[in-house]
Write a structure and sequence with these properties.
Layout: H1 2-20, E1 33-37, E2 40-44, E3 51-53, H2 56-64, E4 69-74, H3 87-93, E5 98-102, E6 105-106, H4 108-113, E7 118-122, H5 123-126, H6 130-136, E8 139-142, H7 149-160, H8 163-187, E9 195-200, E10 206-209, H9 214-222, E11 237-239, E12 252-257, H10 261-272, E13 282-286, H11 288-293, H12 297-310
Parallel strand pairs: 3-4, 3-7, 4-5, 7-8, 9-12, 12-13
Antiparallel strand pairs: 1-2, 5-6, 9-10, 10-11
Helix pairs in contact: 2-7, 7-8, 8-9, 8-12
Length: 318
């Protein structure tokens, strides 16, 4: 009998630690995405539904991927709401978006108040704020903006879990650009005319933009060649002095003007220079906002709208 009691007591004591122990924790859920980007690696716990985009190119990218933008920054000509070239996408996916300050000085308090689940920008824009932004929400930065806008759209596709949609949007755009190029060539004896892109940027600055610029990428996708020897092959843009005005010449010259009073004087001086009258190309004034500042997919489509209109070919909208 004593042996039976001893066995029973031992069995009871063996059960006590199990009964008194804390319940096992469920395994931690894997993050929705882990993104490698310009500032390192960021885990995004769940599919983002509320995004603060601190650069207009990322507003464009996030909207193009049919995701809600709740906050944005203002920049130069973009000071009163989101730009018109974003069209129905802004109406659908940014109808309640608000400014969180200037591009150069976004407000951390305003960003936090929006309770975003993702913040996106570029290292070249907000490197100094990355640590503070990351404490508000998962934060993903590209290296820069501009000519790499397609790669930045793909980066947003990864962060939002919409990689396939990003690739589809890029393919649609490239097919559209190529179709416009074919139609222009067909109307031009089988070859595309040469082009130049010129910007009056204020403070005596006149720039000739090359193929590695944002607008240069779009026009290259159409298929436009540059005049032989034009000094833009290895640079986003080169500054042009008045004595070098003839470097701007091409069959067609697209001219953008930064909307600021400091631009008026230098532009007037260039246009009054006798060398300007010697330019043989057809000159077209285009929007500085879309051709220079947009640096995104919807801005690129707006550029293609302009090109199709200028050359009187079908817009080939997807």
């Amino acid at each position: 009998m004593k042996l039976i009691r001893t066995i029973a007591l031992g069995a009871l004591l063996a059960l006590v630690p199990a009964c008194g122990a804390a319940p096992e924790r469920p395994p931690e859920q894997a993050p929705f995405r882990v993104i490698t980007h310009a500032m390192g690696e960021t885990a995004i716990p769940a599919e983002p539904k509320r995004v603060v985009a601190l650069d207009q190119s990322f507003v464009d990218a996030v909207l193009s991927l049919e995701t809600e933008v709740v906050g944005y920054t203002t920049y130069r000509a973009i000071t009163d709401g989101l730009p018109d070239y974003l069209g129905p996408l802004a109406e659908t996916h940014a109808d309640e978006a608000v400014s969180v300050g200037k591009l150069e000085e976004p407000s951390l308090e305003q960003i936090a108040a929006l309770e975003p689940d993702l913040i996106v920008s570029a290292k070249v824009r907000h490197e100094a704020l990355y640590g503070q932004l990351s404490r508000i929400a998962p934060t993903v930065f590209s290296e820069t903006t501009g000519a790499i806008w397609k790669d930045n759209l793909r980066l947003m596709g990864q962060a939002l879990g919409k990689e396939e949609l990003a690739e589809a949007r890029i393919a649609e755009y490239e097919q559209r650009a190529a179709a416009i190029g074919r139609d222009i060539a067909a109307a031009n004896g089988g070859a595309l005319p040469t082009i130049s892109v010129v910007r009056f940027a204020g403070e005596d600055t006149v720039r000739l933009y090359g193929e590695k610029s944002y607008s240069g990428v779009v026009l290259s996708d159409v298929g436009f060649p540059r005049p032989e020897g034009q000094p833009t092959s290895d640079a986003i843009a080169v500054d042009i002095a008045q004595e070098n005005i003839l470097d701007l010449d091409a069959d067609h010259i697209f001219i953008a003007t930064y909307p600021d009073a400091t631009t008026d004087g230098p532009k007037a001086q260039f246009l009054a220079n006798p060398l300007w009258s010697r330019l043989t190309g057809v000159q077209h004034e285009v929007s500085d906002l879309t051709w220079m500042s947009a640096v995104g997919l919807q801005g690129a489509h707006a550029m293609l709208d302009d090109v199709a209109r200028i050359f009187s070919v079908p817009p080939s909208r997807p």
